[in-house]
Write a structure and sequence with these properties.
This protein is of the alpha/beta class and about 260 residues long. The chain has 2 domains: about 90 residues, ATPase, nucleotide binding domain (Nucleotidyltransferase, domain 5, 2-Layer Sandwich), CATH 3.30.420.40; about 150 residues, Nucleotidyltransferase, domain 5, CATH 3.30.420.40. The protein is built from 7 helices and 11 strands.
């Protein structure tokens, strides 16, 4: 079994995979004030909940877009598992050709998701990740990462709007009942959720035109479940995309078949 860790701006996601199948998962806040010792205890609790011991885990890999926390989380994994956690950086083999002006700028989460999409579908893919950022990236079945577009995430947009407008309040986003809403909370929810749905659809259409042919449209990320019921048959929802790719990268760099 392999421990996969995805450290994002909002959360630290942990998964245990065996034979490319998720056996367990856990998510906690990516708290910049937590020490390595506290992250160690989080990992130990996760393993205990699954009735696992560190000896049950054959290896680990970490993808991080939070440089200030990377070393702490990496140290926590190394200490608990008594092994060397792989860190997804430019030293690891991914098999993905990054067709960007500066390949080092591409986040490890985008690389993992691209590998996951290519290996899951074997098609040219448009990967739409709804997290702290909305990212739309294109990865081809011959394993080329062509680039894409970035936009503020849904929840981040709401937070900024509420911070700069005194009469607006933070809300929990969900499926809106109608566009012509009757309360401030409903107005925010309908505007943001329906607005992002139209934004994603419009950008996807324009990116397909630029690419020159249809792409496999894959929705992923923690907020993708809010939009998935709106997006129709053109979109495939895959919450495991990033972890699938992270597992594949681990296998590619260790020659294991776990």
């Amino acid at each position: 079994m392999i421990l996969l860790a995805d450290l994002g701006n909002r959360s630290l996601s942990l998964s245990i995979y065996e034979n490319r199948q998720e056996k367990a998962s856990f998510k906690t806040l990516s708290d910049k004030f937590k020490s390595a010792d506290e992250y160690q205890e989080t990992l130990r609790q996760f393993l205990r909940l699954q009735n696992l011991t560190p000896k049950d885990i054959d290896g680990a890999i970490l993808a991080s877009v939070v440089p200030s926390l990377t070393k702490r989380v990496e140290k926590a994994i190394n200490t608990v598992l008594e092994t060397d956690c792989l860190l997804l950086d430019r030293k690891l083999k991914t098999g993905l050709a990054i067709r960007m002006d500066n390949p080092s700028e591409v986040g490890s989460n985008l690389i993992s998701a691209a590998i996951g999409a290519i290996n899951d579908y074997n098609e040219d893919c448009l990967i739409i990740c709804l997290s702290s950022c909305l990212s739309l990236t294109v990865a081809t079945k011959d394993k080329q990462f062509l680039g894409g577009s970035l936009f503020p995430g849904m929840r981040e947009s709401v937070s900024h709007m509420c911070e700069t407008n005194a009469q607006l309040m933070e809300i929990d986003l969900g499926r809106p009942n109608k566009l012509i809403a009757k309360s401030t909370k409903e107005c925010i929810n309908s505007g943001v959720v329906k607005g992002y749905m139209l934004l994603v659809d419009s950008l996807a259409n324009e990116m397909e035109k630029e690419f020159g042919k249809p792409l496999k449209r894959v929705l992923t990320g923690p907020d993708a479940n809010i939009l998935k019921t709106f997006m129709g048959h053109k979109y495939t929802y895959n919450p495991h995309l990033l972890m699938d790719g992270l597992y594949d990268i681990y296998i590619k760099n260790t020659n294991l078949n776990k």
